[in-house]
Structure formats: C-alpha cells, structure tokens
Please model this.
Amino acid sequence: MQIKGIHHVSAITANAKQNYDFYTNILGMRLVKKTVNQDDTSMYHLFYADAKGNPGTDLTFFEIPRAGTTYKGTHSISTTSLRVKNDKALQFWQERLTQFEIDQDPIEEHLNRKVLGFRDPEGQRLRLVSDENNYGVPAGDPFKGNSIPSENGITGLGPIHLTVANAVPTKQVLTEILGFREVGTIDNQIVLEAGEGGNGAEVHIEERTDLSREKPGRGSVHHVAFRVEDEEELEKWRTVIQKAGFPNSGLVDRFYFKSLYFREPNHILFELATDGPGFATDEDMDHLGERLALPPFLESQRESIEASLTPLDTSQSK
Model:
C-alpha cells in the first residue's frame, strides 16, 4: 500500500464556458471529459489534463453559477501547481500570460525550484513549477492539439499547498496514516512527499494563525485527490482510515476511477482515487471531451440532464 502522488484537484467555477476558454485556449490543456457532478447532475464537471488524461494531470472544475467571492484563509487548498518541463518554459509562460493580461507574479525561486504564480480570471490561485531539477513521479504528455509548443506545454499537477491554522494534525494524517514522508521545512512550509516523490507527489503545509477560515466560492479548491493503484488497494485504505477514526464515504464508483473521501482535522477534503480505468472507458482517445459523457448509471437520465445544462460547445477539444 502506497500513495503514488497527486491524482487530481477539483475546484469551483461560476462560468463553464469562460473556464473552458481559459484552460484550453490560454493554458493549452486538453479537456478530457465533459460530464456532470454525479452528486448534483445540474452542474457541469469539466476535467482538464495532459494529452491522454493520465492520473496526476487532472485539474477539474464544478460549475456553480451562483458561486460567490472566495475570501482567502485557512482550512484551504490555497494553491495548485502545474508542471512544465524546465525553467525556459517559465519564460514562455511569463510572456504568454502578459500577452493575455493575466494577473501574475515574477518568476521566483520557491522551495528550491523556479515557479511562476498567477491567477485565472476568477482568482483561482495557480503556480507553474519547473521540472528542471525534478526527480520522482514522471510528468504526463503535453497536449499537442493547440498553439502551445510541446516543449512548453503543461505536463501535470505539481505540489499542492495547504493553508491551516494548526499544521500538526494535518501533518499527522498525511504522515502517520497516508504514509507521506517529511522532506523538511522551507520558507515556513512543511514539505511532504509520497511514492517516488518530486513535484508530482508533494504536499506543502503552511500554518497561519493570523488568518480566519476561508470562505470558498468561485476560484476556490473543493478537494485534492491522491493516487492509489487499484480498487483492491483502495479497500485496504478504507479500513486504515476507518480504524483511525475518520468518517469516510466508503468506496464510490466514479466510473472513470473509484474513490474514497474523508476530511482531515483542519476540515480539508481528501480523496483517494484509483489510477484506472481512465477517461477512454466511454470515449475514443482521439475524441475525449467533445460530447457530454455520462456514466452508465446516469445514461437513462440524459435527456433531463442535458435540458438542465447550458449548452457548451467543446468540439475543439480534439
């Protein structure tokens, strides 16, 4: 049993069309699945990833049209990192974000690697991180079906930044229950890694006693998922988490992967998700994300589900 790294991050948008335009046309990620929130089918669930939708590359969004402003604070997944090949790629992105007037920070050294912080149009806190000196979990394959040169393309998810009022219990859950290893403390952040380590398997914990609890809205993160091998291993993790005294969802079939959810003591929602079966389960790899995909248990409701959604043309996703 071993957590292999970051599986996906799920965030909130108030406008699926604008969100789709930004993450595909500006950031050059591939929409690998256009589906719905299985717990509330009235909202889109969009999955952006690398060329093949590999686990560890998915940044997903629930569309909540009435989502309000996010008031930043603790109990939060406060920054999501996106990996690029090297430091040179960061220079490309600095110029591209400037071209499209995207709010950004200067390139800087952060936790011994070059990073470029920026915000999407809804204030989603993002950071491009260079794999120049990286090791460990391999990156994904950048999507080539866009205007971004492949050598500069986004290759997956990088370190996840948590902001908490008390770092001790969160660290204990990650290390003593989920098996993360402490790498050290840099820039007042506790750095943990799982599996093969590196950018694709790190969680950074920042303790802030000067902030109040975050009020989530558009541009906030809903949960982070960690990779497990398969359903058999996920069942073992369920037993471990249950014995540790954490209420959990039990195994949930998301069709594209199996999941288990629980909240750690600072109320951040963690998910464990299997690597498979993957996004090509119900769509051809060459045509991912072009139509509304529904898992078999929702297919009988397709007509009513489609009627409740604002049409979203994703034909360019191929």
